[in-house]
Amino acid sequence: MPSSRQNARAQRELYSQILEGDVLIFQIDDLLVLKATNAPKCQNNENDTPEDKVKPDPLDPKNIANSILRLEELKTATLTKSKIHDPEEILEQALSILRHTEGIISSIRRASVGMVSEDIEAQTMISSVEDTPKAVKEWLAATFTKQIFGRRQTVEPPKFRSIVQAVRASMYVDKITRKTSQAPVDVSPASQMLQEELNNWDIDVFKYDCLTTNKPFRGLFGEVLRRYGLIKRFKINLNHLENYCALVENGYNLHGNPYHNAIHGADVLITTHNLISSTGFAAWMTDIEILALLFSAMIHDVEHTGTTNNFHICTSSPLTIMYNDRSVLENHHISTAYRYLDQPDSNPFDKLSKDDFREMRGIAVEAVLGTDMSAHFTQIKNMQNALFNPSTVNRNTAMTLILHCADISHPTKTWDLHKKWTDNLMEEFFCQGDKETALGLPNSPLCNRAETLVPESQVGFIDFIIVPSMNLLGDMFDALLLVQNEEATATGNKPSNYKKVERPWDSRLVENRKRWKELVTPKEETPAKPAVNGRISEKEEEEVKEQESNTPKQRNSTTDQPNSRRNSKSSSQRNSQTEQPPSLNGSAKISADSNDSKTVAPPVEKSSVGAAP
Questions:
Q1: Which of 127-136, 510-519, 529-538, 561-570: highest mean pLDDT?
Q2: What are phi and psi of 27, to 5 degrees?
Q3: How far are the Cα atoms of 34, 59, 68 from residue 15, in angstroms, in the given order?
Q4: What secondary structure letter does DSSP report for 289?
Q5: In 182, 537, 538, 602, which residue has its Cα 20 to 30 A from 360's Cα atom?
Q6: Under a CB-based contact definition with an 8 Å cutoff, are residues 197 and 168 in contact?
Q7: Do residues 203 and 212 make contact, with C-beta atoms less than 8 angstroms apart?
Q8: In sequence order, what DSSP letters do the residues of 41-52 get, joined into one string?
Q9: CA nearest 447: which of 471, 424, 464, 426?
Q10: Rg of the chain in Å (alpha carbons)
């Protein structure tokens, strides 16, 4: 029995004969018959009889176009010189088969170089349309699908790199922790701190920034990449990497922001690393996905202006004009990060293949744009719906949620760190409020130095934003890792030590919320009177007036401030609660007192949501 290699060789020889005109095509009993001939090209000998019956199987795409042209010529010659039965029908069928095969092969080839999964059906439909020029099909595919900027198509989602990692996900943490750097040993205090505390959820990034003299990325990014083996895997040039990190550091510190600076970028990078390593989730990801996500974490706020998207829109800033009011800052961050790669000797990813670089960019663009808080509830809703069937969760969506949660994660750290982050962010908000006042604009929420209620805003931020987000993130980790666990079980390698991921953020959120509640300004309010038919009775109204008239004047001076603060708070609530009522997402409060009327739902806009970055 001939081998597959022999069959392939025979097919190549057959196509060569077709192209040269040494084989003619006939139809007998619904079978296409190829007949060898020694007659001049495009001619038949009527005394010849078919010797072999072979079904055409055109698998070589490079000969398809030439085959069509050759058969067109063959059709013309046959109609004028041959005497075979119904030659027009035979050749029309042959041409139809080859045209259809060309469309299928072209679709497969396009799918393998940059098409996202949801576009496969559209690509197949476009390719299968008859009587449509090839150039038109390519234009349709390039214009109305995500062929160019998507990820490489895979038949199925990438699995764990090995069953061992699926079964022993918890051992992955130890592997990451123990892995030593292959670079020369650095004995500086900053390097020693990374070696000892990089996997610590509560690492003091402010201390690390001081040890590096405000240059946190040059050692940090390289060390994180080494721990995943990405330096060697992608042949990253360390000199170019250091130059690029220096550009990113300068970009973060360009505007002298109290919060959105290089320290915040380093904190998000470390938090992202801990989220995927401590949970074992990195074993679910491919190498290029890990590289793209860590890169996105480092550059996600580069060249931040210290003001919100709404401020840019209201002042018609150049960035607003450039990005058409859509995710103004986020578009600027990702655009700036890739412009830095064009600087001399500053592209550490120049050894990546075109496909890897395209995939990395696709992930980075989606992840950074996902840090826009205006997309927060859309992200939450989409992931909640996807977790009903975890095997269908989009990989980019999962990575985008990880970066988004890392970006707003400072309430999940120890109180000292969280309080410092909050103070820095509120100062940045107040600076924006000062600019708005100078420009004659109304103050954005939480940007008025005299009226902002910081503790109340933080309680609302934790209750309505952080808790639902972090709970959903933990649920996503559990669900996706469980899918891998079940796949390992189905192969006969039943895991013996699978368990849900640890959530170090839960205890920190409880403690931090409690501390903010203790700082909430007590209110002095008159007890509400029972209403009669929806109105206060005249007798009760007279009692209230009499009580107010007997109140000493100095009493008014002590109540002026709380009343002003309450009015400010009410105004802030009206401006900020347009898209997130307390019951949104079914979020459960951390403690029983979270239904207190003092809790304020933070606004939706990214840099105006409590202490959201």
A1: 510-519
A2: -125, 120
A3: 11, 10, 12
A4: H
A5: 182
A6: no
A7: no
A8: TT---TT-----
A9: 426
A10: 33
Q: Which residues pair with 32 in a beta bridge?
A: 27
State mean pLDDT over 406-431: 96
How far apart CA 61 and CA 12 sit, in angstroms, is 11
Parallel, antiparallel or unpaired: strands 31-36 and 23-28: antiparallel
**Range 41-50 average pLDDT:** 43
Is residue 114 a contact partner of residue 150, using CB atoms and an 8 Å limit?
yes
pLDDT at 400: 97
pLDDT of residue 533: 44
The rounded distance, in Å, linking the Cα atoms of 272 and 478 is: 17
- CA–CA distance from 208 to each of 187, 197, 329 (Å)? 14, 10, 27
Contacts with 298 (C-beta within 8 Å, 6 or more apart), sequence order: 217, 221, 245, 248, 265, 266, 268, 269
* Separation CA 363–CA 337 (nearest Å): 14
Once rounded to an integer, what is the mean pLDDT over residues 327-340? 97
Half-sphere exposure of 402 (CA within 13 A, CB side): 30
d(C-alpha 285, C-alpha 282), whole Å: 5
Measured at the CA of 292, the angle between CA 290 and CA 295, to 5 degrees, comes to 105
Closest CA to 602 of 467, 468, 457: 457
Do 463 and 599 meet the contact criterion of CB atoms below 8 Å apart?
yes
- Give the angle subtended at the CA of 476 by the CAs of 472 and 481, to the nearest 5°: 155
Question: Can you tell me whether residue 256 is helix, strand or coil?
Answer: coil
Token pair, residue 142, equals: 């390039």
- From the centroid of its chain, how far is CA 500? 23
Who wins on pLDDT, 517 or 492?
A: 517
Q: Between helices 87-111 and 120-128, what is the axis angle to 10°?
A: 160
What letter does residue 25 receive in the DSSP assignment? E
Encoded tokens for 113: 């170089």
Supply the residues annotated as catalytic: 260
Distance between CA atoms of 6 and 8, rounded to whole angstroms? 5
User: How far apart are alpha carbons 133 and 129 in whole angstroms?
Assistant: 9
CA distance 557 to 277: 56
User: Concatenated DSSP letters for 486-546?
Assistant: HHHHHTT---SS--PPP-THHHHHHHHHHHHHHHSPP---PPPPPPBTTB--HHHHHHHHH
Q: Which of 178, 115, 171 is nearest to 145 (CA)?
A: 115
At 27 the three-state DSSP class reads strand
Query: Distance between CA atoms of 377 and 384, rounded to whole angstroms?
Result: 10
- Two structure tokens written together for 576: 């900020």
Query: H or E element: which one contains 244?
Result: helix 238-252
Coil, strand, or helix at residue 296? helix
Which residue's structure tokens are 């405000």? Answer: 214
Task: Determine the length of the chain.
Answer: 613
